[in-house]
Amino acid sequence: MRHEVIAVIGDRVAVRGPLGIVVFEIIGPHATRVGDVVAGILDETGSAAVENVTRHEYLDVFVEDCGCSPDELLELLDEGAA
To answer: What is the Cα 70 distance to its own chain's centre?
Structure first.
């Protein structure tokens, strides 16, 4: 599935896709930006691999939340900024 990146704070990324908002942490260096399109199966928490289609790079990620609310999204991204 394809997802649009809607927020990036540090290594934490939020995407919007068919199942709602998903938040994951990227393990390792990356160039992910708001507006990028990523592809991968992000329907459950835990380790996953995704492709940043926009930047032609593969990423190892840890999915922290699937289908989170806007309030939960802000809380998770605030934790990443601290």
So the answer is: 14
